């Protein structure tokens, strides 16, 4: 179970930028991301998505969607994110808590629309759109870092 990609966006609906490493700040978010401010709501601090969910979507619909297009911060491999809802775990050296599933929104639906309607895209990612997390400790996370369940 590990991290395969890291992304931030410095403005709402702005382009996602890939990184080899990012700093997660407890109670704030990812340094340099649009959501990173003092006392950011826990559910807005960090989002994760499974690479396998993106692969499954592409295979099912014959698409070539890239993980960053789902606008999540961390792309994982080999971890069931839905099982981490309400649980504490580490992302590299940083302790986080899964808050709630991160279901796709109309923004993502519109951004990915083409052959598929925004509604169809949103429906297809329901239950596999990722996980919203609260950042509980501060530290640097890198591509390749492990994800470990604590409880």
What do you see in this structure?
With 151 residues, the protein is an alpha+beta fold. The protein is 17% helix and 33% strand. It has helices at 51-61, 106-112, 118-125; strands spanning 2-8, 17-19, 21-25, 29-30, 46-50, 74-77, 88-91, 94-101, 131-135, 139-142, 147-149. An eight-stranded mixed beta sheet has the order 2-1-6-5-9-8-7-11. Strands 4-3-10 form a three-stranded antiparallel beta sheet, with no helix packed on it. The protein is globular and about 40 Å long. The mean pLDDT is 93.
Given the C-alpha coordinates, what overall shape results? globular
Describe the largest sheet. Answer: 8 strands, mixed
Count of individual beta strands? 11
Uncertain residue ranges? none
* Helical residues, percent: 10-25%
What series of H and E elements makes up the topology?
EEEEEHEEEHHEEE
What distance lies between the first and last C-alpha atoms, to the nearest angstrom? 16 Å
Q: Order of strands side by side in the largest beta sheet?
A: 2-1-6-5-9-8-7-11
The number of helical segments is 3
Mean pLDDT: 93
State which percent range the strand residues make up: 25-35%
Tell me the structural class: alpha+beta
Q: How large, in whole angstroms, is the Cα Rg?
A: 14 Å
In short, what is this structure?
This protein is α+β, with helices and mostly antiparallel strands and 151 residues long. The chain is built from 3 helices and 11 strands, in the order βββββαβββααβββ.
């Amino acid at each position: 179970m590990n991290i395969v990609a890291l992304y931030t966006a410095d403005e709402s609906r702005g382009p996602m930028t890939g990184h080899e490493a990012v700093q997660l700040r407890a109670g704030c978010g990812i340094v340099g991301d649009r959501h990173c401010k003092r006392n950011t709501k826990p559910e807005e601090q960090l989002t994760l998505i499974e690479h396998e969910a993106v692969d499954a979507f592409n295979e099912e619909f014959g698409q070539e969607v890239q993980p960053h297009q789902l606008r999540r911060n961390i792309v994982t491999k080999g971890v069931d994110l839905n099982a981490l809802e309400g649980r504490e775990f580490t992302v590299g050296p940083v302790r986080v808590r899964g808050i709630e599933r991160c279901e796709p929104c109309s923004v993502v639906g519109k951004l990915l629309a083409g052959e598929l309607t925004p509604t169809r895209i949103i429906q297809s990612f329901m239950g596999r759109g990722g996980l919203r997390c609260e950042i509980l400790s501060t530290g640097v996370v890198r591509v390749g870092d492990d994800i470990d369940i604590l409880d």
